[in-house]
């Protein structure tokens, strides 16, 4: 039987709150128990009553994969456009490595699609695809520059990139070998934030140094 958050163990409730207010995401692939609790509308409502005292609210991404916290006035603040413009400028260096990764991984996926929450990444398959594609090798070199790494061996380069994505919480290692990864719900949040920033910024592509990367989002 589905139960609401105030009836669950206190540890789970506290875990959900702490996870959200520290900027983390919750999805059924990486945080199954938390996601199952939040799938209950009553539990989500009760959680939001609690978060409201901190000026926050838990929302679900439009693709349904992920829960994350936003400020209550995030969509209505009169200075939101200025805030978004400032955020876009401040986050440019952080966002670009993620965009580069998406461009790279798109070339390894069937159907030329982007990464979504729950996707599995195999190091051996990724290495094989990279070894057999000069385009992916070039994209990998560009990505290495973006994350400030200088390895030249393909295996080391891929390891550096995957470790970076794990550190940024876009990927989670699975299994015992350390060679397989799972895409987290942070991808869903990334797409929504990127879409929102583009919709609310009058981006001048002539002034942007890398317009094709921004338009890719």
Give an account of the 3D structure:
The strands form two sheets. The protein has a three-stranded antiparallel β-sheet with strand order 1-3-2, with helices on both faces. Strands 4-6-5 form a three-stranded antiparallel β-sheet. Helix 6 packs across helix 7. It is elongated and about 50 Å long. The chain contains nine helices and six strands, in the order H-E-H-H-E-E-H-E-H-H-H-E-E-H-H. It starts with 9 loop residues before the first helix and ends with a helix. With 217 residues, the protein is mainly α. The chain has two domains: 5-71; 80-216. It has helices spanning 10-21, 32-38, 41-51, 80-106, 123-131, 134-146, 154-167, 186-199, 211-216; strands at 26-27, 56-60, 66-71, 120-122, 171-174, 180-183. This is DUF4194 domain-containing protein.
How many DSSP-defined strands?
6
Envelope shape: elongated
Order of helices and strands: HEHHEEHEHHHEEHH
Structural class assignment: mainly alpha
Q: In total, how many domains does the architecture comprise?
A: 2
The whole-number mean of residue pLDDT values reads 81
User: Compute the gyration radius: what is it?
Assistant: 19 Å
Helical content (DSSP H or I, runs of 4+): 40-55%
Query: Beta-strand percentage?
Result: 5-15%
- Reading side by side through the largest sheet, how are the strands ordered? 1-3-2
Could you list the spans in which at least 5 consecutive residues all have pLDDT below 50?
A: 1-8, 203-217
Ends apart, CA distance between termini:
40 Å
Number of helices: 9
- Biggest sheet layout: 3 strands, antiparallel
